[in-house]
Description:
Elements: H1 56-82, H2 84-105, H3 115-138, H4 140-152, H5 156-180
Organism: Tenggerimyces flavus
Protein name: DUF4190 domain-containing protein
Region (Disordered): 1-55
Amino acid sequence: MSDERAGGDPAPIPSEGTSAPPDANRVFGQAPPSHPFSAPAGGPGGDGPPPVKLSEADDRKLRIRARLAVIFGAGALIFAVLAFPLGLILGVAAIVLGALARRSARPARVRAPGAVPGIVLGIVATVFASFVAVTAAVFWDEVSEYYTCMEGANTRTSQEGCQETMRKRLTERLEADGSAG
């Protein structure tokens, strides 16, 4: 048996004559410290630099950014329905403020309360407002004709006529686009 030594002990891994590190220096399932995907300094089991102490002004700035991210994200969701351009702007602002709050909290290893919800709300609102903007651009003629009709509609019957005309136009447009594809 070539795997056994004279005393009956199994041969060390790696066998002698290879360039792999000895077992004592190897941790299975973890990248070596020099590897680009290894845990950063200060991570689990690492010494790393100690957390940076935030000044009172920096801590206040961090919390304000995180709170504004949530407020802008919630406002963006509301305005994505009511006034999509404003919803789009507020959504992007929520994402930026949340990311800035998280970035400034990272070296101090503190939490930025509201940063992640602000980012999530901002992303959802931005996607929704973008969808509304694209839809409005595609159906601009129909929507503008509807609003012109509704401005001149003084009775409930004429308003229902405008809505019916809008439904017919949209149905014709969607059927024409569906059969062309």
